[in-house]
From TrEMBL:
This is Hydantoinase/oxoprolinase family protein. It comes from Aromatoleum toluvorans. Residues 513-685 form the Acetophenone carboxylase-like C-terminal domain. Residues 210-498 form the Hydantoinase A/oxoprolinase domain. Pfam families: Hydant_A_C, Hydant_A_N, Hydantoinase_A.
């Protein structure tokens, strides 16, 4: 049995292979990293899979499961190159996507841009109004669907060459019969079209957010579906018969078929794996409170995990590229800050770092591929923190003189600084920007970083871990065993998940039996849908678990918070527990709660989960009192944040054993990342392979 996790980043594609083989008689884990192929991610994915199979000494046909984290859907939203979308909607509501919520990104700017108007997901000429009307609160049909208008609209889309269509009727979350019938007609006229109904994508109240989510699904869906199915076919052609699963934004994995139909569910696929990997790394050291810091070549992602529980964003916060998306997403902050982030002087003379990135091609100046702008990686090389002859295990040759020249001409000379001062400035600006994002995801949401360990990973994370921990006052730093591959590892420790939701507005005060019956009926129906999906995937009944969530608000509030629903049939006692759960969450998020204000359930959400077997990481050999000198490689001068240069020893992480301690200054080198231990800090290796870094005690 072999399984692979493969995570595509902007610069590198990371892979982890777990083998429980009979050939060599023991459990083995291998990690690997290859350059990403932005023009077609599947090339890098397939090439990396074949390479790591060779490294692991197995045949590609031995692989039974591949879990993939991809940025395909994310990149479409960033680059604004999605499908031309056609839309059918209720007459009188054609401009919902244009009007939005009358919010402006910059209230006091005269040059503000409203993305949903300047770059609409559906152009106005492609939004066709249809005669139909379903009425609240029970979904009675007030005006039948005009099927002739639907057919005429489909013919118009066909003439315009539109092959991605959405159906968004006003009250379809109460009665979706009109949407389903309209979809049937469209598919008769356009049998090869990518068709999405709002009741299939986001079956909840709020027409603008529901329409926007469905429009985004159709905008990214065709290309995403093509990529996933193309990758699936390439794997088959290469003799790989493994089940392919895709990471979702909610921290679960699902099938190619499901993610192709609901592409909006994987907009944060590439980011979610890192959070799950960070939680796994914390668990290796029995640490439940973890702040994950995933710094790659292009971006940095941060998430706060309290008590081992991954947080999901509130619906009011789930935006992608300024478009509201009602799809569950892990609560994380992301920014353009990575090893490839470019340092420059802006038009006003300010010294900036990112969000522009050199990416994988041409990459940092030191790569020697034609890049001339200085990056964070170039700064680390100039400061002596990255050694040219051991970068990525010697897999990539870097030229320190090219790094110095780029920083000298673009930053140091314009600001009147030495090259070393400019390089330190690049790192400090980067860390300052990232620490603000960490605080926004922790302190601003009611979590005290002093109670959390900071887990830095990604290719560039461990270089910045201690500086970021100092900036946010984190308790300690935990560097995972394979930092550059942690996001890929996260893919193999993630459960399969299906989610279904439905809006059932219900006030909890003086609730009557018919309302309780309706809540129980909806819970049963959504649970049955989850069970059906899990059954289709061959998940045995004893591995099917269901999480029940009520999204609640105070009566009259704009958005909801999640509250747990206890097991069993909903009754007065369980509703009291739902209210208490909501009150506690409201107090955490906002600092207060009302005891005398009515609470309203807006949406019921059921999550069907199939538990996955956790990745077993090999334990290290015990040091038994031996010195870490056996892992010592050499010493080189290195400049730290105090501006001083130290003769700093380099240690080969592969040779470090459980219990070894290293006093800073020290640098720990491995193939996929480099860990910086500044003066005044001590790094200790745990049995599970984590490195714990703490300030030296006086």
């Amino acid at each position: 049995m072999a399984r692979i996790g493969v995570d595509v980043g902007g610069t590198f594609t990371d892979l982890v292979l777990e083998v429980e083989g009979e050939k060599q008689g023991k459990h083995r884990v291998y990690v690997h990293k290859v350059p990403s192929t932005p023009w077609d991610q599947s090339e890098g994915v397939l090439g990396g899979i074949l390479e790591i199979c060779r490294i692991g000494g197995i045949y590609p046909s031995d692989v039974r499961l591949i879990v993939h984290g991809t940025t395909v859907a994310t990149n479409i939203t960033i680059e604004h190159n999605g499908a031309e979308v056609g839309m059918l909607t209720t007459r009188g509501f054609r401009d919902i996507l244009h009007i939005g919520r009358h919010k402006r990104p910059e209230n006091f700017s005269l040059q503000f841009d409203v993305p949903w108007q300047s770059r609409p997901l559906v152009k106005r000429r492609n939004r066709i109004a249809i005669g139909e009307r379903v009425m609240p609160p029970h979904g009675e049909v007030a005006q039948p669907l005009d099927e002739d208008e639907v057919r005429a609209a489909a013919e118009l889309f066909k003439a315009r060459g539109i092959r991605s269509v959405i159906v968004c009727f006003l009250y379809s979350f109460l009665n979706d019969a009109h949407e389903r019938r309209a979809k049937e007609i469209i598919q008769e006229v356009l049998p090869d079209a990518y068709v999405s109904c709002s009741s299939e994508v986001a079956n909840v109240i709020r027409e603008y957010e529901r329409f926007s989510t469905t429009a985004m699904n159709a905008y990214v869906g065709p290309k995403t579906s093509l990529y996933l199915k193309n990758l699936e076919q390439k794997l088959v052609d290469a003799g790989i018969k493994a089940h392919l699963r895709i990471m979702q934004s909610n921290g679960g994995v699902s099938t190619v078929e499901k993610c192709s139909k609901e592409a909006v569910s994987i907009l944060m696929s590439g980011l979610a794996g890192g959070v799950m990997g960070g939680r796994w790394a914390g668990a290796l050291s029995e640490e439940k409170n973890v702040i994950t810091v995933d710094i790659g070549g292009t971006s940095a992602d941060f998430s706060t995990i309290p008590d081992g529980k991954v947080k999901i964003m509130n619906p009011r916060d789930t935006y992608v590229g300024a478009y509201p998306i009602l799809a569950p997403m892990i609560d994380l902050a992301t920014m353009g800050a990575g090893g490839g982030s470019i340092a420059y002087i802006d038009e006003g003379g300010a010294f900036r770092v990112g969000p522009r990135s050199a990416g994988a091609d041409p990459g940092p100046a030191c790569y020697g591929k034609g890049g001339t702008e200085p990056t964070v990686t170039d700064a680390q090389v100039v400061l002596g923190r990255l050694d040219p002859d051991h970068f990525l295990g010697g897999g990539i040759e870097i030229d320190a003189e090219l790094a110095r020249e780029a920083i000298r001409t673009k930053v140091a000379e314009p600001l009147g600084l030495t090259v070393e001062e400019a390089a330190l400035g690049i790192i400090r600006i980067l860390n300052s920007n990232m620490s603000l994002a960490i605080r926004a995801n922790s302190v601003a949401k009611g979590y005290d970083p002093r109670k959390f360990a900071l887990a830095p990973f990604g290719g560039a994370g461990p270089l910045n871990g201690v500086a970021l921990a100092e900036a946010v006052s984190a308790r300690e730093v935990i560097v995972p065993p394979a930092p550059g591959i942690t996001a890929a590892i996260g893919l193999l420790v993630t459960d399969m998940q299906y989610e279904f939701m439905r809006s059932v507005p219900t006030l909890l005060k003086d609730v009557e039996q018919p309302a309780l019956d309706k809540l129980n009926r909806v819970i049963d129906e959504l649970t049955a849908l989850c069970r059906e999906r899990l059954d289709d995937d061959g998940v045995p009944a004893d591995n099917q678990h269901f999480v029940r969530i009520a999204e609640c608000r105070y009566h009259g509030q704009g958005f909801e918070l999640r509250a747990d629903i206890p097991e069993g049939r909903i009754d007065g006692e369980r509703l009291a527990a739902v209210k208490a759960s909501f009150q506690a969450q409201h107090k955490r998020d906002y600092g207060w709660a009302f005891d005398d204000v009515d609470v309203e359930i807006v949406t019921i959400r059921i999550i069907g989960i199939a538990r996955t077997r956790p990745l077993a990481w090999p334990e290290l050999e015990d040091a038994a009192g031996s010195s870490p000198d056996s892992a010592l490689m050499y010493e080189r001068p290195t400049i730290f944040d105090d501006r001083k240069s130290y003769a700093t020893p380099r240690y080969d992480r592969k040779k470090l054993k459980a219990g070894h301690e290293l006093s800073g200054p020290a640098i720990i080198v491995q193939h996929d990342s480099t860990t910086l231990v500044p003066p005044g800090y001590v790094a200790k290796v745990s049995a599970k392979g984590n490195i714990h870094i703490n300030a030296q005690r006086a």
